[in-house]
Amino acid sequence: MFDTILIANRGEIACRVIKTARRMGIRTVAVYSEADAGARHVRLADEAVCIGPAAARESYLVADRIVAACKQTGAQAVHPGYGFLSENEEFAETLAANGIVFVGPPVSAIRAMGLKSESKKLMEKAGVPLTPGYHGDDQDPAHLRAQADAIGYPVLIKASAGGGGKGMRAVWKGEDFADALASCQREALSSFGDAHVLVEKYLQRPRHIEIQVFGDTQGNCVYLFERDCSVQRRHQKVLEEAPAPGMTPERRAAMGKAAVDAARAVGYVGAGTVEFIANQDGSFYFMEMNTRLQVEHPVTEMITGLDLVEWQLRVAAGEALPLTQEQLSIRGHALEARIYAEDPDKGFLPSTGRLLHLSPPEESLHVRVDTGVEQGDEITPHYDPMIAKLIVWDETRERALARMLQALARYRVVGVSNNVGFLSRLVACPAFASADLDTGLIEREQGFLFPGDAEPPAEAWLAAALAELLREREDAGEAAARDADPFSPWHGRDGWRLNSAARRALVFRSGEAEKAVAVAYEGEGFLLELEGRGVRAHGALGAASTLRADFAGKRINATVVVAGEKRHVFLHGRAFVLAAVDPLYHAGEGGGAEGGLTAPMPGKVIALVAAEGSTVEKGAPLLILEAMKMEHTIAAPCKGTVKAFRFGVGDQVADGAELVEFEAAR
To answer: Which three-class secondary structure state does DSSP give residue 228?
Structure first.
């Protein structure tokens, strides 16, 4: 076994590998970019080495710097995690040339499975079922269009070297093919350095089911059952679960055999995932093989009781697989939800900023949180905006769903937009709860998943007001303790007035709604009046901004986090944002700036679609912005004229920067 390993990655996977290695008595080395100098994986590792600037192409993607870090620290092996260089054959070759073990498959397996088109040919020879499509080398747009026409629409264009949903577009009619192809190729070139694509039949209502495989250097290969990853958005997984709902033993065995055949066909060693697209009738087709550990591997660990990272390290050290196929079994059901810094109500735009308050649910036998950040850390525009993976387990799928809803209700995130509320609705969605699964679930359940803004309930307004009053009382007590005369009546916050009762109003705003909570002091408590209804209230503040409140005898537990003028109220499993309004402040009458379209996040301009001086219709694409490895199209808000672009292709833009001077039609 190794004495020291280096983790050539960041975020939650780096933290996860460090945790397992430490349990195995292995010393760990983290590498980090300048942007990650204070990151959690850097704090957790035994040693850390800076390998370059924030941009991944100048740090995490530079093989020579990682090799230099290994030599500097004496690391004998490199765990690549996922993403970055985890499936890069040149990186694996470079490590081998320097006598460093790559914790992953042989270079030949990476090469064979690295290009989807080539892997399809191998799988065809191995007898693994394939989706009808074109996997050839001719990349002429006219030829690809002709192949798509022959296959029949809808088709799916996929980056041959891709993964993670990048460089992938569904095309429903021939006239849309050229634009979709250009977009795929741009994204593929940016993300993987290779614009090569393949074209396949796009199956209707398919499920995405993948099989976890593991091989060793002694020729043993097993499958550790399946994961259902059908719940996706833009071909990126959102929820994963294991085992797959409705999977029969016969179908599991057939898919497992196909996956092992695929692995054996390339002499696979280590952890890998064979991904299949499955029809509702049970038929399935090979899509691709990921020659690394997957983001969703924890659900497999939860149902098998195994540590797949430990298996990776043991196999890389030359040991045989710990168990045979006959010794593997499934227990219970597990789900994983990816907690992201993104805004579901704004097209899932990534969000950046500091995590002012981060309180995940408590971990237990049933709940696991894999994360690369802690409260106070920053989500930057340089990398994937994942906050954590939330994994739950229970004896049945129904009980696991209940666990997930409970765990999401206890997740508190303040400082960045996030998808916790969306995930809660997704888990509660009748289609998901009843396992009516396919990759289009999110699109066809838009009404349930995006119900629109709902006004906070009365208890949210009251909780915000009570927390405000209790904080004032606590601050006054602390100030009194520091004062030379701690017993001065001027420190009091009991509302005492000579010859009259004290009353005041706390005003909050949520969206377009603005409400005042009238306050009368009553000894240790308060009389709160909202919209003509009075409620006697008292309570106490606890750690992490928790609030125990009593409203007219009804007790509730909430969390009220202060962030500037905002009050983030977490109540009954939901989150509400109220803004405290200063009644002495009056906004000016002037309107906002007009005529410009601004960047929704930091990013890079990669294409100018419209021409300066042209007249466009509402919704017409004007330019394409790349941020966090994804393309975002800036569209015309109405019919009008493109007066000028403020930036050119390749320019970096800041959040809120004016991109286009646009004049609306009169």
So the answer is: strand
Residues 309 and 336 in one domain: no
What residue numbers bound the domain in which 614 lies? 596-664
Classify strands 533-541 and 546-551 as parallel, antiparallel or unpaired. antiparallel
Complete edge-to-edge strand list for the sheet that includes strand 4-7: 47-50, 27-32, 4-7, 77-79, 101-102
Instruction: Give the C-alpha separation, 43 to 141, whole Å.
Output: 49
Buried b / exposed e over 349-376, threshold 16 CB at 10 Å, is bbbbebbbbbbbbeeeebbbbbbbbebe
CB 119 within 8 A of CB 288: yes
Tokens of 631: 């393309």
Reference 581, options 529, 505, 493; nearest CA is 505
User: How many residues in the chain?
Assistant: 666
Query: CB–CB of 319/262 below 8 Å?
Result: no
Closest among 410, 329, 331, 308 to 367, alpha carbons compared? 410
Residue for token pair 């049933």: 366
How many Cα atoms within 13 Å fall on the side-chain side of residue 409?
13
Same domain membership, residue 622 and residue 566 = no
3-class state of residue 234 by DSSP: coil
CA atoms within 13 A on the CB side of 144: 28
Give 518's Cβ-side CA count (13 Å radius).
11
On whether both 8 and 95 belong to a single domain, the answer is yes
Q: Where are the beta strands (DSSP E) in 43-132?
A: 47-50, 77-79, 101-102
Helices (H), 429-493: 430-433, 441-444, 446-449, 458-482
Residue 192 lies in a domain: yes
Q: Are residues 289 and 216 in the same domain?
A: yes
Low-confidence ranges of the chain (pLDDT < 50): 491, 498-499, 586-595
| Phi, psi for residue 328 in degrees, rounded to 5 | -90, 140
CATH code at position 432:
3.30.470.20
pLDDT score of 361: 97
Q: Which one of 292, 338, 368, 403 is the catalytic residue?
A: 292
Q: Residue 611: helix, strand or coil by DSSP?
A: coil
How many Å apart are CA 20 and CA 361, to the nearest integer? 21
Provide the pairing of β-strand 270-278 with 342-343.
unpaired
Residues 423, 408: contact at Cβ < 8 Å?
yes
User: Cβ–Cβ contacts within 10 Å for residue 279, how many?
Assistant: 14
DSSP label of 291: S
What is the structure's pLDDT at 586?
44
Supply the angle between the helices 107-114 and 116-126 in degrees, to the nearest 10: 100
For the chain, the domain total comes to 6
511 inside domain: yes
CATH code assigned at 627? 2.40.50.100
Quote the radius of gyration of the chain (alpha carbons, Å). Answer: 28
Q: Hey, is 403 helix, strand or coil? A: helix
Query: Does some domain include residue 109?
Result: no
Task: Identify whether 292 is a catalytic site residue.
Answer: yes
Q: Is the separation of the CB atoms in 606 and 625 below 8 Å?
A: yes
pLDDT at res. 491 = 47
Place of tokens 């349990």: 23
Is residue 95 helix, strand or coil?
Answer: helix
Which tokens hold the place of 490?
A: 């001027």
Residue 110 lies in a domain: no
Where b means 16+ CB within 10 Å and e means fewer, 297-322 reads bbbbbbbbebbbbebbbbbbbeeebe
Looking at every residue in the chain, the average pLDDT score rounds to 91
The single-letter code of the amino acid at 387 is I
Contact indicator for 379, 351 with CB cutoff of 8 Å: yes
What is the CATH classification number for the domain harbouring 185? 3.30.1490.20
Residues 448 and 462 in one domain: no
Distance of alpha carbon 12 from alpha carbon 5, whole angstroms: 17
